[in-house]
Amino acid sequence: MCGIVAYVGHQEAYPILIEGLKRLEYRGYDSAGVALLNENDTLNVYKSKGKVSDLEAFAASSDLGGHIGIAHTRWATHGEPNQVNAHPHLSQSGRIALIHNGIIENYLSLRKELENRGYTFQSSTDTEVLTNLIEDVQISENVDLSEAVRIALNHVIGAYAIVIVEKGHPDQLIAARKGSPMVIGIGKDEYFIASDATPIVGRTQKVVYLEDEQVVRIKLGEELHIKTYEQPAIVRDTMRGRLHPEGNTVRLGGILQYEKQLLYADNIVFVACGTSWHASLVGSYLIENLAKIPVKVEYASEFRYRNPVITPHDVVIAVSQSGETADTLAAIQLAKEKGAVVLGICNVIGSSISRATDAGIYTHAGPEIGVASTKAFTSQVTVMAMLALRLAELKGSMKDEERLEFIKELDRIPEKIQWTLDHSGHVKDIAELYKDVRNMLYLGRLQNYPVALEGALKLKEISYIHAEGYPAAEMKHGPIALIDKDMPVVFIATNHSTYEKVLSNIQEVKARNGKIIAVISENDVLARKMADHIIEIPETECLYSPLLATVPLQILAYHIAVMRGCNVDQPRNLAKSVTVE
Ligand code: AGP
Fold first, then answer.
1. Dihedral sign (CA 310, 312, 313, 314)
2. Nearest of 229, 212, 165, 153 to residue 191 by alpha carbon
3. C-alpha closest to that of 227 among 242, 238, 211
4. Environment class of residue 153 by beta-carbon count within 10 Å: exposed (0-12), middle (13-18) or buried (19+)?
5. How far is the C-alpha of 486 from the C-alpha of 490, rounded, in Å?
6. pLDDT-derived band of residue 482, with 50, 70 and 90 as boundaries?
7. Are 473 and 445 spatial neighbours (Cβ–Cβ below 8 Å)?
8. Atom number, ligand 1, closest to the C-alpha of residue 376
9. Region of poorest pLDDT, from 173-187, 417-431, 466-480, 559-573
10. Atom 10 in ligand 1: residue holding the nearest Cα
11. Which atom, in ligand 1's list, is nearest to the CA of 275?
12. Range from 36-45, 117-126, 257-266, 493-502 carrying the lowest mean pLDDT
C-alpha cells in the first residue's frame, strides 16, 4: 500500500523524507519518489521503480537541497509500476507537485474534461489527473492553493490522502484526506506529515490526526489552518466566479451562447425527478418573478410519455444531481427531437446528462454520497437564482438597485445557512419527540411549497415515516381530515407575502389538536406563539427562503432516521442514480 512522507522546516528535507519512506517500507510498494523545493525555487522531482534504495542511487548525484519536500512509495493501481507513474506528479505548468494515497474513482471523466481544456498527461494515473484538476481550479478561480484543493476535491469521488508542495511557497504544504489516514507531526519550527505515525514518532510527540474531508494549510510560523466542507461552502462554490455584486451582474459562462434563446423563449421548461424537480419548482418562482419569463416544471418521467407541446421556441433545462437519471435523459432526447435547445443544470462533470445537453451550468456541489439529496437541492436552487438574475439583467425586468439588492442578498446566503445550522441544535430534541409517529404533514405556500415537498421527501426516504407535502391552503380540501393529536404538521411560516394566510392554517391545525412545528423567520412574533416548536431561519428575500428553510428540515429527517436506527446514507430500496425507468 502506498506511503506518504512530507516535511517543511529548518532541516534539510531529503534525509528526513528518505528515512521516513524506509520506515513505511513494511506497507509494500513497487516504486518511490521525492520532490524537493530548493532555495532557488526549483522543484526537483526524482522517481524510480523498485525500492527506496533504488531511488537513493538514482538521485545520488542530483541537487537534493531544500527545506521542504514530499515523498511517496507507490503500490500501483492505475498504470503499471514504472518511473512515469510513480509519485510525485507535477502539474502541467510544473508549479505544483502532489503525492496521493487512495483511488480517484471518477478520474476518467475528469481527465476527459481537462483534456478538453487543453491539458495533456504523461502518466496513466488518477493522481496526475487530480494534480492538474487542482492547478486548473487554482488558475480559473484565482484562489490560493488550499482553496483550490478544497474546490477541486468537491469534484472528486473516491478516497485520498494528498500532500502538495508549490513553487513560490517554500514554507507551506497543503494536505487533505478522505478515507485514507494522515498524521501531522508538529515540531519546533517544523512539521512532518505521514500516512501513519511510524515515520514521525521518533521526531515529535505532538501529532494531529486529520479528519475526513479536511484540507489543512501547514505554514511555518502559523497555526494549522484546517477547512472542512459544509453546505455554506458548497453554495459559495456554486456562486464563485459567477455572482458579481461589485458589477451588479451574474456571469454563467456555460450558457453564454444560449442567453438569447432563454430570453426570448416561449417557455423555459424544467425537466427533472425527485429533489431536482422540487428545486426546479423553486426555480420557476425565481425566473417568473424576477425575469418575467414563463416557466413550466415537468416530471421527466411524465414528460417523456405525454407527448408534450414543445417547439424550437422553447428552451428545455434538464436538472439532475447525478447526471445519469434515465427518465431525465429520455426527456432530453424527446426535447431535442422537437427542436428545442436543451440545457443542463448538473452536478457530475462529464456525466451522461452533461454530455447530452447543448450546454449547461455545473452546480459544483461535490460528490453526494448519501442517497438522499441535500446539498444538491441548495446548489441547484442557487444556480436557478443566478439564472433568474442574469435573465432579469438582460431583459431589464428589474430596476438596477433592486437587482443589486437581490445579488447582494444571494451573496449573503452562505453565512445565513451557517446561521441556520448554528441555530438548529434543538432540532434533535424535536426529532426525539416525534421519532415514533406514523405520519407527518408538511405545509408551505408559493416558493415554500417545494420546501414542504422536499421536507416530506427527506423524511420518507430516510426514516420510512409516511409524510406528505402540500400547498398550505390545500389542506382544507382534504388532508385536514387527518389532523388529530397524533399528527405533527410542519409549517414553513416565514414572514413573507402569504404569512397571515399560513397563520390561519396553523390555527386550523391547532383547533384540531394537531402538533405544530414551524419554520419561522428570526424576528417573527406571531407564529412563534402559536407553534409547539419553532425552528428559526434568518430574514431573507422571500424567493430565497427555500435555500434556508430546507436545511433544518433535512436535519430533522436525519435525526429522526438515526433515532429509528435507519441507514441514512443507504436507505432501503433506493439508488443514488436511477438509471432505469
Ligand atoms: C433525492 O433525495 C432522491 N434521491 C431522488 O429524488 C433524486 O433527487 C432523483 O432520483 C433525481 O436524481 P438526479 O438529481 O440525480 O437526477
1. positive
2. 165
3. 211
4. buried
5. 13
6. confident
7. yes
8. 14
9. 559-573
10. 274
11. 8
12. 493-502
CA proximity to 331, closest of 342, 322, 321: 342
CB of 183 closer than 8 Å to CB of 196? yes
Instruction: Find, among 578, 238, 274, the residue nearest to 381 by Cα.
Output: 238
C-alpha cell at 524: 417573527
Pocket test for ligand 1, best of 304, 371, 373, 374 (most atoms within 8 A of CB): 373
Report the C-alpha gap between 345 and 328 in whole angstroms: 12
Cα(494) to ligand 1 centroid in Å equals: 26
Pairing of strands 96-104, 158-166: antiparallel
**Separation CA 547–CA 278 (nearest Å):** 12
**What DSSP state is assigned to residue 488?**
E
Provide the sign of the torsion angle of the four alpha carbons 396, 401, 405, 411, taken in this order.
positive
pTM confidence score: 0.74
Query: Does the beta carbon of 461 sit less than 6 angstroms from any atom of ligand 1?
Result: yes
Catalytic choice (227, 296, 510, 576): 576
DSSP character for 39? T
For residue 72, list its beta bridge partners.
4, 33
Count of CB atoms situated within 10 Å of the CB of 45: 19
Establish whether residue 325 lines the binding site of ligand 1, counting it when its CB lies within 6 angstroms of any ligand atom. yes
- Altogether, the residues listed in the chain come to a count of 581
If you measure from the C-alpha of residue 536 to the centroid of ligand 1, how many angstroms do you get, rounded to a whole number? 27
Task: Based on the residue annotation, tell me whether 273 is a catalytic residue of this protein.
Answer: no
CB of 321 closer than 6 angstroms to any ligand 1 atom: yes
Distance from the Cα of residue 337 to its chain's centroid:
33
Ligand 1 geometric centre to CA of 576 (Å): 7
Tell me the one-letter amino acid at 496: H
DSSP track, 269-303: EEEE-HHHHHHHHHHHHHHHHHH---EEEEEHHHH
Report the SS3 class of residue 314: coil
Of 364, 416, 361, which Cα lies nearest the Cα of 237? 364
What digits encode the pLDDT tens for the residues 493-532? 998 889 999 999 999 999 999 999 999 999 899 999 999 9
Q: Whose CA is nearest to atom 16 of ligand 1?
A: 320
Decide whether any atom of ligand 1 lies within 6 Å of the 371 Cβ. Answer: yes
Please give the grid coordinates belonging to residue 11.
532541516
Which residue has cell 454530455? Answer: 355
Is 259 in a helix, a strand, or coil?
Answer: helix
pLDDT given at position 371: 60
The rounded mean pLDDT for the chain is 92
